[in-house]
Amino acid sequence: MLSSVRAISRRALILASAGVLALSTLPAAAAVPLDDLLELNARAWSGEPELLAEVYAPDGVHSATFYDRTNVYEGPGEIVRIVGYGRPESVAPRIDIPAADGEYRWADFLSLAGGSACLWRAVDGQITRQDCLLAEKSYDSRSLAGPADADTSAAIDELVARLDGTWGPGATVEGLAEVYAPDAVHSARFLNQTKHYVGPEEIIRIARGATTIEQIGPRVDFEAPEGELAWAQVSSVAGGTVCLFRAVEGMITRHDCVLPIAG
After folding, report:
1. Is residue 1 very low, low, confident or very high in pLDDT (cuts 50, 70, 90)?
2. pLDDT tens profile 75-103
3. Residue 85 sits in which domain range?
């Protein structure tokens, strides 16, 4: 406990001297305001890796899920292996997710790999989970993506309207086939495993069991090559889930989600 108090005090002193101490809109019960924690995290990833031991819990986990694999790094000693190159540009403001006192949960959206999304959890002022989805295979190098333009967002509006209602107790293979490509992949990355469903005939297994899904915050639209669409959404599933979507010629080809629970 004493070491935690010392760590919190040190973080507060660093932030105060930098002039970045700010009020958070999330619960005051957490040890450090979220804006301050994110400032320290940005510094840790951009050339001050010694801060990782303050930002991440000793058993904090960072995972990066690609189309073909998930890389997992546990604790600051492993996470340091992939820092130091700077953080990719944010495409949209973070979305705060309701959380218990003493916790923060949020999602953010980055330009990396044609548009990526991460789901975060912090407890008592330290990050315990950072689970990211990247829209490519681990050996690919998709171009960075910024926010979509108005025409692209309008096209995504139309596709999302077609998608609405295709999940739930009344879901059918025929209904899914109107919005998902025949070889479309839906993946669900849990804390301990990733499950894959290929094509409407398999996606129906999970779609039919879905309960009411409420969106949290605004949809985030990414720019994409001609003929493609890319976007991300945060939902109420499992207390806060983030999903990445890719579509080609008006049909969803990838629907990848990360959930903050074990599967």
Report:
1. very low
2. 999 999 998 766 679 999 999 999 999 99
3. 2-133
Q: With the C-alpha atoms ordered 167, 104, 102, 77, is the resulting torsion angle positive or negative?
A: positive
d(CA 171, CA 74): 38
167 shares its domain with 79: no
Does residue 185 sit within a domain? yes
CATH assignment at residue 61: 3.10.450.50
The string of pLDDT tens digits covering residues 144-155 is 999 999 999 999
In the predicted structure, residue 179 carries a pLDDT above the cut 60: yes
| C-beta of residue 240 within 8 angstroms of C-beta of residue 260 | yes
Dist. CA 58–CA 126, nearest whole Å: 9
> Which residues are CB-neighbours of 217 under 8 A, at least 6 positions away?
95, 96, 107, 234
Cα dihedral 66, 251, 236, 122 in deg (nearest 10): 20
- Domain total of the chain: 2
Is residue 141 in some structural domain?
no
* Domain-located, residue 143: no
Whats the size of the chain, residue-wise? Answer: 263
Residue-wise pLDDT for 59-71, tens only, equals 999 999 999 999 9
Strands 103-110 and 90-97: antiparallel
Q: Tell me the three-class secondary structure of 190-246, residue by residue.
A: CCCCEEEEEHHHHHHHHHCCCCCCCEEEEEEEECCCCCEEEEEEEECHHHCEEEEEE
227 & 112 share domain? no
pLDDT exceeds 50 at position 6: no
